[in-house]
Amino acid sequence: MMIDTHCHLNFEDYNNLDDIINRMKENIIIVSGCDGRTNQDVLNLCNKYDNIYGCLGIHPESVDTATVQDLKFIEGNLNHPKIVAIGEIGLDYYWTKENKALQKEWFQSQIDLAKKYDKAIVVHSRDSIQDTYDMLKNSQVSKVDIHCFSSSLEMAEKFIKLGAKIGIGGVLTFKKSEKLKEVVKAIDLKHILLETDSPYLTPEPYRGQKNEPYNVYYVAQKIAEIKGETLENVLKETSKNAVIQFDLPIVL
Ligand code: NI
Prior knowledge:
Strand order of the largest sheet: 1-2-3-4-5-6-7-8
Oligomer: single chain
Strand content: 15-25%
Number of helices: 9
Order of helices and strands: EHEHEHEHEHEHEHEHH
Distance between the termini: 8 Å
Bound molecules: nickel (II) ion
Number of strands: 8
Radius of gyration: 17 Å
């Protein structure tokens, strides 16, 4: 069993969604929303496919256009049996620093929602790792997935101390990812979640093509190689981590 803990399967990105999801039929896919429209897509996918679970959230890049109704939609659907987390949410100062305060406001209100309903959160952090860390620490949330982790080993260890899991995707397979390889080598497998972030960040050997959840296999293979583990063990342990983290109703 493989679990892709983070991807986006929005209808406009793929014209062969059935095939892509079918390739993962023995496995689990967790899709993430980013805004009002994609959150609705997530619900539709959860309702249509047995092997899909979902996260609802307002991404930091979407906060300028997000509305109170969007937040109410998230809250109103947290009791859906296949909605397992709030995400993706977080801070992104790479695209814009102009709206830092608004990004923090949305991040905090969604963290608060997760705490209120005892849900996990899936966190996006780009050029904002210290602020992200400070907000998570102050909020005392522990069911956290730092998705597509790209910071230092020191930061990884600090997040792990908060109880967070480290999301590892296709970037690990890229040649210029020495820092991330060091992180993966140093931290225990029990802190790692597999992800693809499809349709982005396609792992080698398919880099350049559109990513899909099945490619989580190549991420697992790379982790096995770096850690000197068997592929089987990497898949088993990371699936176990995901089941616990997202409270998935799955018996492994
Ligand atoms: Ni994402």
